[in-house]
Amino acid sequence: MGKGRKKHSENGGRKPRGYKSSVPTHQFCFDVVLYFEDHSMDVTLSKFYKDLEGSQLQTKCTSVYLWRKKKGKLVELCNSTGTARLRKSESEMIAPTRTDVVEWIAGDWDELTADTIANGFKGVVKESIDDGASKRQVGQIVGRIESMDLLDKRMGEVSE
Q: What superkingdom heads the lineage (predicted)?
């Protein structure tokens, strides 16, 4: 008996996959969503997926609902014929601005413990403040926090 995988045919070769992965284009998804807005799910599925039945049809039903959720993105992608013909799109990650981060912290500031706040600043500020630049940096941070009325004046100075 030979070693390795059993051959699919006399000529050898690999056995074909048992599933077919088909990803529709953005334009197709958008067309389905537009049609679904005016028709029922059964009519929509029978128009676009005539040959499917059973669990495959249920899977497509779920897909239609997901496409409807991201209709705004599909509209944006289908504005250009180049992206309308694509099957996948890269999502853009946008870094938050400093103002966004400060507002986010301000929103949840009351829930933070004093230790959490102190540990958060350890990575930003040096332990020993020797030079004038570090002192100015600390002063700017404290000034920014004070300007947003986030400091509790009753607490006094924080010590370790």
A: Eukaryota
